[in-house]
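>> received
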Amino acid sequence: MQKHSNIHITSLIVFLSIVSIFVQFAAYYVFISTYAIAGIACLVTIVSAHILLEKTLTYEACFIYTLLLVFLSTVITIFTYLGNEQYFMPYTDALLWIVAINWFIPTMHCLIRNMLDYGVRIENFNTFYRNNSIIFLFYYIVIVGYGLFSENAFPWAYTFAAEDANFTPFWSLATQIEDYLNHMIPISDIWIYLATRILSFGPIGYYITVLLRKKSRLLRFLSLLILPVLIEALQYFIIPERCDLDDVIYAVIGGIMGGLFFHFINLLYRLISGKSFLTKDSDYRYSHGSLHF
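>> returned
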């Protein structure tokens, strides 16, 4: 009976994954508007995640669904990008939105459901959140690593080009402000410069806080500081003009913001459900391990 039940759950996950991918990329093929494509992608993932939770009563089913969606949409996006004009679908940035939605929407749906904790109790949220975080961190490391150590990556984020490494605090920002005052660059260049360097390290601060939330604040701060220092040291030897002391400062600010975001979510959990975010499940045999949130 248990084996038959597992087959039924697996079949449901695969079916909903195929339907979701078909609807999303049919919308991409038919519609021009990115908002319409994103709206349809969000709707189909919300409905599918809700069905899975109600039918399986476990968040792990949503993880497998999310993993399949992200993998399939990534493969289609890569082939579309490489094929470009030869492929039956033209490549646009909307494909990247579909990949992001396929991770973000099921994650947020399960998080909100667990926070509200209504209806029949659904199990294994912590396991789901840990595994979904691994998916996110994989993509995050690939994208940020490419941006940091590839000379031609994300030119819009490097509109300000230094000739050599900079070890003077806020010299790059001061130079850009002076260029703006002299009408040499638009104000948007300064906002992009600050936003990319601060926000890109928000996830690092968030997950450091998750993993070290029961450790001392000094240890968490040192962890936030050491990583950007190591990155800038590597950039000094690989791409010297990318090495900038300011980036360390902005990374620490971004990391602190990420840590505060975790505490904000934890506060919401306590106000709404009366429990802390990522409370350990007593019946999970690895609940005492460091990797279990």
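>> The chain has a mean pLDDT of 87.
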